[in-house]
Amino acid sequence: xKIDIKAAxxxxxxxxxxxxxxVRSFDYRVTKSGDTFVTGYVSNQGCSIGFKVWRESIExxxxxxxxxxxxxxxxxIDTWNNIPSIVFESVKxxxxxxxxxxFLPGYDMGKLEGEFYGFLDNTNPKVRLLxxxxxxxxxxxxxxxxxxxxxxxxxxxxxxxxxxIKMLRIAKTMIDNDARLLPFSDLIYxxxxxxxxxxxxxxxxxxxxxxxxxxxxxxxxxxxxxxxxYIVELFxxxxxxxxxxxxxxxxxxxEMKAKTVYAYIVHLIDMIDSQATMFMxxxxxxxxxxxxxxxxxxxHFDEIYYY
Length: 307
What we know:
Elements: H1 5-9, E1 16-30, E2 36-44, E3 47-54, H2 58-65, E4 70-80, E5 83-93, H3 109-120, H4 125-134, H5 137-145, H6 159-177, H7 185-194, H8 199-202, E6 203-204, E7 207-208, H9 215-225, H10 228-234, H11 237-249, H12 261-285, E8 289-292, E9 295-299
Helix pairs in contact: 3-6, 4-7, 6-7, 6-12, 7-11, 7-12, 9-11, 10-11, 11-12
């Protein structure tokens, strides 16, 4: 069974805990005396607690974490400045068949996939062919389960797909309301779907992985180059390079600014969704609502401009 993180946070120093955990993040460090230890966080449904692994358990942790972020542990509660953490005394392979999704809040994957492919069914068949070529196999699984961001917006399993779907809705509204965009709808739709596709290589369940410093934009371009011939054959060379310009320039910052109209349009669509979502997330998590006996009495929406 899974360790109840909320219950663990209420335990006292020295109390025993055991069960399966999802290792949200971890790092290897060295003490002043030269001993290596592991520190990080385990999570369950949005609740986290820190952990440490010392000495004889480190090699077990190292070998198991290379295979799965879900492991079975037993240990004791420790505290530092009244903040509890778990010291893992034993680390073993999980025997319950849990996956990271069993520990993380997120969206309904089936609904996300249904809406995504339902949208594609109403586009140019060549768009569907291309997306089926890009989002397939392991990439498909990762696309529908990965976070859209580590912390900022849609930071939960399925967030990447949901962020993409919201952007497709906005893009369709723009195209439906301005006929001048219609000739470029294929490029805009593919650009929206692929603008963050590199996050399947940049993240693992919202956590940065090795070489992620090059950013998802570069990973996305790398993925397009891997099927360049197919994209050119399906559309043309201009489409391929315009798609690269969208992926590379959708943040419109630093040296990677949008350099085509198409890239700037996708940038604006991205900003509308991500910024609005961050705004609403901040409203939910900060004290913008007064309550009396648990009932909301005042909504400070009028003051959000000054936030």
